[in-house]
Design goal:
The complex is a heterodimer. Chain A is of the alpha+beta class. Chain A has helices at 9-79, 85-93, 119-125, 134-142, 180-187, 224-231, 271-317, 331-436, 444-483, 492-508, 528-545, 580-585, 603-615; strands at 99-103, 109-114, 146-152, 159-166, 172-178, 196-200, 206-209, 238-241, 244-253, 258-265, 488-491, 512-517, 523-526, 553-561, 566-573, 618-624, 628-636. Among the domains of chain A are: 69-182, PAS domain (Beta-Lactamase, 2-Layer Sandwich), CATH 3.30.450.20; 375-483, Orthogonal Bundle (Helix Hairpins), CATH 1.10.287; 486-654, 2-Layer Sandwich (Heat Shock Protein 90). In chain A, strands 2-1-5-4-3 form a 5-stranded antiparallel beta sheet, with helices on both faces. A 5-stranded antiparallel beta sheet of chain A has the order 7-6-10-9-8. In chain A, α1 (9-79) packs antiparallel against α7 and α11 packs antiparallel against α13. The radius of gyration of chain A is 76 Å and the shape is rod-shaped. Chain A starts with 8 loop residues before the first helix and ends in an 18-residue tail after the last strand. Chain B folds into 2 domains: 21-136 and 275-337, 3-Layer(aba) Sandwich (Rossmann fold), CATH 3.40.50.2300; 139-267, Rossmann fold, CATH 3.40.50.2300. Chain B contains 12 helices and 14 strands. Chain B has helices at 2-12, 34-53, 73-86, 97-110, 138-151, 166-183, 202-210, 222-235, 250-256, 276-289, 295-313, 317-326; strands at residues 21-27, 62-68, 90-92, 113-116, 131-133, 156-162, 187-193, 215-219, 240-243, 264-267, 330-331, 336-337, 350-355, 358-361. In chain B, strands 7-6-8-9-10-13-14 form a 7-stranded mixed beta sheet, sandwiched between helices. Classes of the chains: A alpha+beta, B alpha/beta.
C-alpha cells in the first residue's frame, strides 16, 4: 500500500521542472542520438561499401596488370624459346614475384626463378611434377589466368598468392608473391583510420587484412557477411566480430573469386560516434545542471502568488473580509484573486440576507402560535358546550327513565289495590246484605256463608294490601338507591330479583321471558343502584331491540366468580343478534337502531360508562346475526373507592 | 537523478554478454608445415563453433585466438607469451615437436595448459608438466614402422631427417633405429637436410640413393617429403619410399604430383571410418573449409574435445591441469580419449599408400 506523500508546492514545482528537463533531455537526446546513430550507420555503411568496392576494383586492377605482365612473359617465352630463359625470368620476377616458373604441357616444371636466387635449387626444380598442383589444375580447367587465393607454394613451401596463366602452347606460367603485397595495395587507399578490410579467398581464408590484427590467421567462412558475400544473398549491415560491432559491406570479385569486406567500427566502438555521444551527453548534463540551478528561482516566482491566494482564502474561511487584494503577473492567479474577491463579497451579502430572513421567520412563528392558541380556546369552548349539552341530555334520559319507572310502579300497584278494593267492595256488599237481614231470623247456614265470605274478602284485601305495601317498600328502596349512589354489601341474587320485579310490567307487555339463574352465595360490595340500573338498561335494550318481529324470546341472566375478586354477570338473549357494524358502534353515545321509536342512543353508553367509571369493571359484547347476543359484565367484588361519584356527574366525552 | 544517470550509462554501456573463455591456437600458419597448422586450426574452430552454438561452456562462449608459430621455436615461444597476455585459459597446439620444444619453457613458466594434437617426440613423454599431448610418442610410431617394414623384408634403410624439426625427426629416427636393429640384420643410414639452406633437395636425394637401400625413409614435413620424392624419382623410379606420419597430409598429394605414387606412411586416423560421427565431422569440415580433414584435424578436434570437457567442470585455469588428468574416458572422433598422469595419450595407426594421387589404406 502506498501513501501519497504531501509535498510543498515549491518542492513539487522544483521536481516538476527538473523532471521536465530530464525527460525532455532523455526523449530529445534519445531521438537525436537515434537519428545521429542511424545517419552515422548509414554513412558508415556507405563508406564501407564504397571502400570494399574500391578495394575490389583496385586489387582487380592490380592483379589484372600482373596478369597482363605474366601473359606478356608467356608470350615472350613462346616467341623466343631459345633465349636465356633463366635470365629473362629473373628479370621478369625481380621486385614483384617471390617465384616464377614455367610448366610444360605435361605439367613438368621446366624452368624456375626464385627470389632466394638459389641457382642450385632453381636448377633441381626442373623436372618436378606439378600435375596435382591445385593452382595449375584449376587454371588448366578454366583455360584462363587463375588466382590461387592463399596457398602454400609447392616450390618454396611459403604461404603465398599464386597466379597460373595457361599459354596457347599448352605450357603455363606460374607466379607467386607474398600475401602482404595485397595488403600494401589496400593500404594505399585507406582514407580513414577506422576503416579496415579483409580480402578473403574462395575457401574463406584471409588473404589480406589491413588491421594488422591476427584475423588473417582465421578462416572466416562461417561469418554471415562472408557467406552472404559469396552467395550473393542479402548482406547483413552489422557484424559482431570478437565482441566488437562493425558496419560491414562485402564486394565479391567475379574475376578473382575473392571477397572484399570493408568494416567500420559500429556504435560506441566508433571514435567519431563516441565523440558525438560525449558532446550530446555533456550538453545534456550541462542543461540538467543549469535547469537544477534555475528551478528554485522559478519555483519561488510561482509559489509566491499561490501563498498570497492561500492567505486570502484562509482569511475568508475565518470569516474576515480581506482588505488588500494584491495582483501579480500571472493572469490565472489574478483571475483567481478576482473570483476570491467576488466570492468574499457574495458571502457577505448572503450573510445579511440570511440574517433578515431569520428575523422574519421568528415573527411569523409567533403570529402563528397566537393564532393556534386562539383556535385552541375556541375548541375548548365548543367542547364545553358539547359537554353541557350532553349532560343535559343525560339528565333528560334519567328523568325519562324515572318516568317509565313511575308508570311501571303505578301499573304494578294498580292490581293489588284493585284486588283489595274489589274484596273490600264485596265485603261491603255482603255487609249491606247482612245488615238488611239483621232483623230477619238468622239462619245458621246463611250466617256461616256470610262469615266465610267476609273472612275470604278480608284475607284477599289483606293479602293485596300487604302486596301493595311490599311493592311500595321495594320501589322506595330502588328509587332511594337510584337517586343517591349508596355503597353497600348486597347479595347479587336479591338485587337481581328486585330489578326483575320492577321490570315485570314491561316484561308482561312483551312476549319475552326473563330467567335469572344466579346462586345466592354471590355478593358484592358495590353500588346496587348503579348495578341495578345497568341490568335494567340491558334488559330493556334487549326487549326493545333483540326480538323485533318475533313472537317469543328468552333472556337469561347468569353469574359466577371468575376469581375471588371478580364477578361476572352474563346477560344473554336468543334474539336477532347484531351486525358487526352495529357491534362496533353499540356503546357509542347517541347511536341507536331505533331512532324515532323512542330510543335515545344513550342506554348502552350509560351502561358502558357506569360499569367502567362507577363499578370499576368492564362490559363486553358478543353477538352474531341470528344467534343472539351476550353482554358480559365483569365487576370487582369490592368496587373502587375512587371515582365513587353519582352517575353522569364526571362523565366526559372521550 | 543519480539513478537515472546510472541507468542511462548502464544502457549505453550495455554489454550483458557473459565473458568469453579465450583459448589460444598456436600452430604454424606460414612456413612449410602450414598445412598441418591450418588443419589443426580449422578443426579447433569447428569444435569451438559447435560448443558456442550449443550455448558455450556453462554459458560462456569460446573465443579463439590464433597465433602463428611460423614453424619456428622462437616464434612459438613468443606466441605463448602473447597468448598469455591475451588471457587464454589454455592453448591448443603446436603441431611440431620442434616448436613444442621452443614453447615448453614458456608454458611451464607461465603455467598455461597446452595440448598438442600431434607433437610426439619422446622428449615430452612421461613428464609431469603443463604440456598435454593427444598423439602417441615417436617410440610407438617408429616401432610400428620398424616392425611393419622388417616384416616386409626391408633390411637396409636410408633416412632423410629434417634439421628444422630435430626434436621430432631425430627422436623418430632413434626410436626407429633401435626398434629396427632389435629385429636384426639391418642397416640404417641417415642424412640431415635443411630446407632453409641453399643445398636444395637433389643432393639429399642423391645421398639417400647412394647406399642403394631397400627403402628410403623420409622424416620430414609434407612439402619437403614431396620435394625430396620429386628429386628421388628423377633419379630412381623403383626404390620404396616411406614417409614418417608427419608428412601424411593432403598437401603431400597436391605437391608431389605423380612422383609420390607408391609412397607409404602411417596415418594416425582411419580415413575410411564410416561412423556417423566422423562422417558428420568430415562433411561439416568440408562444407566450412572446402578441404578434407587430415590427421592433424582429427587429433586437434580430439584435443579441443578434451579441453572443453575439462573446462565444463571448471573454467578456472588453475584447476584445469587436475581436471584434464581427471577426465574420464571421452569419446573422440574415432577413438576413446584419456590422458595419463603425465598428460599423454594414445593414437591408432593405419598404413596408407599413395595410389592415383590418393591415400589408400592398406
Amino acid at each position: 500500500m502506498s501513501l501519497v506523500r504531501e509535498l510543498r508546492l515549491r518542492t513539487s514545482v522544483v521536481l516538476l521542472q527538473f523532471s521536465t528537463i530530464i525527460i525532455t533531455l532523455a526523449v530529445v537526446g534519445t531521438a537525436l542520438l537515434t537519428y545521429v546513430i542511424t545517419e552515422f550507420s548509414r554513412d558508415n555503411l556507405l563508406y564501407a561499401t564504397r571502400a570494399s568496392e574500391t578495394m575490389a576494383k583496385r586489387v582487380e586492377d592490380f592483379l589484372e596488370s600482373l596478369t597482363l605482365d605474366v601473359l606478356l612473359i608467356g608470350k615472350h617465352y613462346e616467341t623466343h624459346p631459345t633465349a636465356d630463359i633463366s635470365t629473362f625470368l629473373e628479370a621478369a620476377r625481380r621486385k614483384r614475384f617471390s617465384a616464377i616458373f614455367i610448366v610444360g604441357s605435361d605439367d613438368i616444371l621446366k624452368v624456375a626463378s626464385l627470389s632466394s636466387g638459389n641457382k642450385a635449387r632453381e636448377a633441381e626444380l626442373g623436372g618436378v611434377d606439378l600435375s596435382s598442383y591445385p593452382l595449375l589444375s584449376d587454371a588448366r580447367a578454366a583455360s584462363r589466368p587463375t588466382w590461387s587465393g592463399k596457398h602454400i607454394s609447392a616450390i618454396t613451401g611459403d604461404v603465398t598468392v599464386g597466379l597460373a596463366v595457361p599459354l596457347t602452347s599448352g605450357e603455363a606460367v606460374i607466379v607467386e608473391f607474398p600475401l602482404k603485397t595485397i595488403v600494401e595495395v589496400g593500404n594505399v587507399f585507406r582514407e580513414k583510420g577506422h576503416l579496415d578490410y579483409w580480402v578473403i579467398d574462395s575457401k574463406g581464408e584471409v588473404v589480406a587484412d589491413t588491421s594488422g590484427v591476427r584475423t588473417q590467421l582465421m578462416n572466416l567462412s562461417s561469418l554471415e557477411i562472408v557467406q552472404a558475400g559469396f552467395t550473393g544473398a542479402e548482406q547483413p549491415t552489422l557484424m559482431n566480430f570478437r565482441g566488437q560491432n562493425y558496419t560491414v559491406s562485402a564486394t565479391y570479385s567475379e574475376q578473382l573469386g575473392w571477397l572484399f569486406v570493408g568494416r567500420v567500427p559500429a556504435g560506441l566502438a566508433n571514435p567519431d560516434l563516441r565523440e558525438i555521444l560525449y558532446t550530446v551527453l555533456a550538453f545534456a548534463l550541462g542543461t540538467a545542471v543549469f535547469g537544477l540551478l534555475l528551478a528554485p528561482i522559478w519555483a519561488r516566482r510561482i509559489t509566491k502568488p499561490v501563498g498570497t491566494l492561500t492567505e486570502l482564502a484562509s482569511q475568508i474561511t475565518a470569516g474576515q473580509r480581506p482588505v488588500r487584494w494584491p495582483r501579480g503577473a500571472i493572469r490565472e492567479f489574478n483571475t483567481l484573486i478576482d473570483d476570491l474577491k467576488a466570492m468574499s463579497d457574495a458571502i457577505s451579502k448572503r450573510e445579511v440576507e440570511l440574517r433578515d430572513l431569520n428575523e422574519g421567520l421568528e415573527s411569523r412563528v409567533e403570529e402563528r402560535t397566537r393564532e393556534l392558541i386562539r383556535i385552541n380556546d375556541d375548541l375548548k369552548t365548543a367542547m364545553d358546550e358539547i359537554q353541557q349539552a350532553r349532560d343535559g341530555l343525560i339528565q333528560s334520559e334519567k328523568t325519562a327513565a324515572l318516568g317509565r319507572m313511575v308508570a311501571g310502579i303505578s301499573h304494578e300497584l294498580n292490581t293489588p289495590l284493585g284486588n283489595g278494593r274489589m274484596a273490600v267492595s264485596t265485603l261491603a256488599a255482603r255487609l249491606e246484605t247482612f245488615r238488611e237481614r239483621v232483623n230477619d231470623p238468622v239462619d245458621k247456614k246463611d250466617l256461616d256463608k256470610f262469615l266465610e265470605t267476609v273472612g275470604m274478602s278480608v284475607e284477599i284485601a289483606e293479602n293485596n294490601l300487604v302486596r301493595a305495601g311490599n311493592l311500595v317498600r321495594s320501589f322506595k328502596e330502588i328509587s332511594a338507591d337510584r337517586t343517591a349512589s349508596r355503597r353497600r354489601k348486597v347479595i347479587l341474587k336479591e338485587l337481581l330479583d328486585e330489578v326483575t320485579l320492577t321490570l315485570t310490567p314491561t316484561l308482561k307487555r312483551s312476549p319475552v321471558t326473563l330467567e335469572v339463574d344466579v346462586p345466592g352465595t354471590i355478593w358484592v360490595d358495590s353500588y346496587p343502584g348503579e348495578l341495578g340500573q345497568v341490568i335494567t338498561n340491558l334488559v330493556e335494550n334487549a326487549i326493545v331491540h333483540a326480538f323485533h318481529g318475533r313472537e317469543s324470546g328468552r333472556i337469561a341472566i347468569t353469574a359466577g366468580h371468575t376469581s375471588e375478586d371478580f364477578v361476572t354477570i352474563d346477560l344473554s338473549d336468543d334474539g336477532n343478534g347484531m351486525t358487526p357494524d352495529v357491534i362496533r358502534k353499540a356503546f357509542d353515545p347517541f347511536f341507536t337502531t331505533a331512532l324515532g321509536k323512542g330510543g335515545t342512543g344513550l342506554g348502552l353508553y350509560i351502561v358502558h360508562r357506569t360499569v367502567e367509571t362507577v363499578l370499576g369493571g368492564t362490559v363486553t359484547l358478543k353477538s352474531k346475526v341470528g344467534k343472539g347476543t351476550v353482554f358480559q359484565l365483569k365487576i370487582p367484588v369490592q368496587a373502587p373507592e375512587a371515582g365513587n361519584t353519582p352517575f353522569g356527574e364526571n362523565m366526559k366525552v372521550t | 537523478m543519480r539513478s537515472f544517470a546510472l541507468a542511462a550509462l548502464a544502457v549505453l554501456a550495455a554489454c550483458g554478454d557473459p565473458e568469453p573463455i579465450k583459448v589460444g591456437i598456436i600452430v604454424g600458419l606460414t612456413g612449410r608445415s602450414a598445412d598441418l597448422g591450418e588443419a589443426s586450426r580449422n578443426a579447433v574452430q569447428l569444435a569451438a563453433d559447435e560448443v558456442n552454438q550449443s550455448g558455450g561452456i556453462n554459458g560462456r562462449p569460446i573465443s579463439l585466438i590464433a597465433l602463428d608459430d611460423e614453424g619456428k621455436p622462437e616464434a612459438a615461444a613468443a606466441a605463448v607469451r602473447r597468448a598469455h597476455e591475451e588471457g587464454v585459459v589454455a592453448i591448443i597446439g603446436p603441431n611440431l615437436s620442434s616448436t613444442t620444444t621452443g614453447m615448453l619453457p614458456e608454458i611451464n613458466r607461465l603455467e598455461v595448459i597446452t595440448i598438442s594434437p600431434t607433437a610426439s617426440s619422446l622428449d615430452f613423454v612421461d613428464i609431469d608438466d603443463f604440456l598435454f599431448r593427444i598423439n602417441w610418442s615417436t617410440r610407438e610410431n617408429a616401432t610400428i614402422y620398424a616392425k611393419h617394414y622388417h616384416n616386409m623384408g626391408i633390411r637396409n634403410v636410408a633416412a632423410a631427417i629434417d634439421a628444422n624439426n630435430r626434436a621430432f625427426s631425430e627422436s623418430w629416427l632413434n626410436e626407429f633405429k633401435s626398434a629396427f636393429e632389435a629385429l636384426g640384420d639391418v642397416t640404417v643410414v641417415s642424412d640431415l637436410f635443411d630446407a632453409n639452406s641453399d643445398q636444395g633437395y637433389s643432393s639429399t636425394a642423391r645421398k639417400l640413393l647412394e647406399s642403394q637401400p631397400d627403402a628410403v625413409l623420409l622424416i620430414a614435413n609434407s612439402v619437403d617429403t614431396a620435394q625430396i620424392t620429386q628429386q628421388i624419382r628423377k633419379l630412381d623410379k623403383q626404390t620404396l619410399i616411406v614417409a614418417a606420419e608427419w608428412a601424411a597430409s593432403e598437401r603431400l598429394l597436391q605437391l608431389g604430383g605423380k612422383a609420390i605414387e607408391g609412397i607409404e606412411m602411417v596415418q594416425s586416423y582411419d580415413r575410411n571410418n564410416q561412423s556417423e560421427r566422423y562422417l558428420d565431422f568430415k562433411s561439416a569440415y568440408f562444407e566450412r573449409f572446402k578441404r578434407l580433414p587430415g590427421y592433424a584435424s582429427v587429433a586437434s578436434y580430439d584435443a579441443a574435445l578434451m579441453l572443453f570437457a575439462a573446462l565444463r567442470k571448471d573454467d578456472d585455469p588453475k584447476t584445469l591441469k587436475k581436471n584434464l588428468i581427471g577426465l574420464p574416458v571421452i569419446d573422440g572422433l574415432q577413438q576413446p580419449l584419456k590422458f595419463n598422469k603425465y598428460g599423454d595419450a594414445e593414437r591408432r595407426a593405419f598404413f596408407v599408400t599413395v595410389q592415383d594421387g590418393s591415400f589408400v589404406q592398406q
